Amino acid sequence: MAKERLKKQIEFIVEIDKLKRIFRQNVVIETLEQENDAEHSWHMAVMAILLSEYSSTTDLNVLRVLKMLLIHDLVEIHAGDTFCYDEKGNLDKLDREQSSADKLFNILPSDQAQEIMDLWHEFEAMETHEARFAASLDRLQPLLLNYNTDGHTWKKPGISSEKVLKRNAVLEKPVPQLWDYVQEIIEDSIQRGYLER
User: Fold this and answer.
1) CA trace torsion 53, 56, 61, 63 (10° rounding)
2) How far apart are CA 75 and CA 1, in angstroms?
3) pLDDT, tens digit, for every residue of 114-130?
4) Predicted confidence (pLDDT) per residue in 81-117, tens digit
5) Rounded to an integer, what is the distance from CA 57 to the centroid of its chain?
6) What does the longest C-alpha to C-alpha distance in the chain come to?
């Protein structure tokens, strides 16, 4: 029995290596090469450790946040990355991602499959302190990349400061200090010509 459990866990570990080949719209600051999902997840995990002190709640479960950040994009292995400003692509995003979650997470032993599925659903629902904090970092990280690459992704057609503000408004309640910082970055980005008003 233990051998079968380990076999399933290793199969999942090998399968999620595919996350490294899922490229996002954002670019890495130093090289301007497309960032992959694994890099994005790692970056946010470090951010969670460093920025958890800014949470509006004093009992934030950072381990739970880390788990959500590390698993939330695994579904993109089969569903692909959907650009947050792609209105058409976002119409069926949840269906594609749920199908991917069913396929991917069920590689694991049933107890772990359920735990990962529950964490993914919690992240998507954004109803707990941990999920809202994790979602805030998921918005902040690409904003920081864009700000430090002269608005690289923001220069795509149809992206305005209004859309970027709306997308990042999720930070307001769980991390008000970071929300203030985001607003300053967006205003500075407009002044520098990285982002259109």
Assistant:
1) -50
2) 28
3) 999 999 999 999 999 99
4) 989 888 888 889 889 999 999 999 999 999 999 999 9
5) 21
6) 62
Query: Distance between CA 46 and CA 177 in Å, rounded?
Result: 18
Ordered structural domains, the chain, with CATH: 2-192 (1.10.3210.10)
Report how far residue 5's alpha carbon sits from residue 109's, in angstroms, rounded to the nearest whole number. 6
CA 135/CA 141 separation, integer angstroms: 10
**Are 102 and 121 within 8 A, CB to CB?**
no
Angle at 67 between CA 52 and CA 33, to 5 degrees: 85
Contacts of 118 (CB under 8 A, 6+ apart): none
State the Cα angle at 70 between 169 and 108, rounded to 5°.
135
The single-letter DSSP state of residue 56 is S
SS (H, E, C) 13-43: HHHHHHHHHCEEEEECCCCCCEEEHHHHHHH
Q: What is the pLDDT of residue 111?
A: 99
| Mean pLDDT (the chain, rounded) | 96
